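Suppose a colleague, Dr. K., hands you the sequence of a protein chain of 480 amino acids and asks what its three-dimensional shape might be. Before reaching for any lab equipment, you can write down a predicted structure in token form. Begin with the sequence itself:
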Amino acid sequence: MFSVLAFDLGATSSRGIVFSIINGNITQQEVYRFTGYKYFDSTKNAYFWNINDIISQIKSIILTASKKYDIQSIGIDSWGCDFVLLDSHNDKLMDPLCYETMLMNENYNICEELPEYFFEITGIPNSPINTSSQLIYLKRNYPEIISQAHSLLMIPDYILFLLTGCKYSESSIASTTQLFDLEKRTWSKNLVDYLEIPIKIFPKIILPFSRIGYCEIDDSTSIPIHSIVSHDTACAVFTIPESSSPIYFISSGTWSIIGEKNEIGLLKSKGLSTSYSYEQAGDGKILKLKNILGMWYIEKVANEIKNTTNEHFNIPDIQELLMKKIPKNNVIDLDKIKLSSHNNISKSLIKIYGKYGHMESIDVFQIIYQNLAFKYADILSDLNHNKYPIFIFGGGSKSKFMNQLITNITQSKVIPIYDEASALGNSIAQFIALNLIKSKDEAYKLLKNIFDLKEYTPINNPIFNEYHLIYINNKRGNAK
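The predicted structure, expressed as tokens, is then:
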């Protein structure tokens, strides 16, 4: 039996999972998950990450797992953009800023100060959460911290440094910063110079499958640590089998990421669009990504209905009820409803559509699911999706109703993959680094033996086609 320990760190929860190869099959066993490491400092009016707590939990999971399994490798993936600054003694100068600080009204427009060539070089549009914007914020609010900084490490890179003493940055996580040159695949000195930050504080870029160092468990035990695809989105996409054609996918969660994986030359030949981010996939290809609110709408409306009507809906109940309903001619722009709803989306929808007939709570869910699927299809169309298979992962991939809805509207096969896709991609990269698996295709064959990878095939429904056309025409009309 060969086992690796994959840490998948998320903004709301994190987990450590042991993956093992036993008799030609891959098995997984969660050690445990933890939450509660984001905090708000009212004196600084900012959100931070309690990085010491994260490290403590990781070390505890390593100790627990190593007592039960013969762990032969450790890998870490996480969300992007956030980072830790170290002084000349390699001590952290402050807890890392949480990207949510940059979404506050007073910080939101900092990104607008950056020139257009930041996007042209990096493929990352100006956004308040980017590392580049956070550095401007820190220079203004904590100039003494910036002046003392000798190293900048992204969240997974910092954790690996504490475990091994080695400073590196893996390409996929580095590409989330808006300081990474898309074509040269290294830090952009021009952009770093613009921010008046010393280029020397940025570590050497490495690719996945490199052995970084060793984590000492005790006097007699040490575990190799490998670089994997460190950005969680890219790590999840890494589970998708290789293809000579473009790969299209949806990461369906509170936030949804709709994307395409392709060669950089093919993407650049179409021209880079500021509507998308272009990030490293970790295997030499590029991810073209669009980030939108996804299942957040469902979670929000479920809470609103519970608080106003005392009706309790859980996701499986919603799915069961929706399977029996016919499509509705209620075409909306979810983003506009969110902005105009005065913090109560369900009430706004009932007010708009209730005048056309009686509306029940389940009708509100149906409107949201249907229009979210229209939005997914619209973005995929903009990506020139052209009916290639769509891979879907994340919590939303468990929704049979939504999967079939996306299939019907796009008229494309939808393939939900793996509950813990990021952690699984993490483990596959480690198995490849250990030479226990030769390629992703070999891994995919092993996984098909143990995961029920149901494929959804399209049903041609003229009603959906008609409503989707209304959605597209409404969008075009609003754009004029």
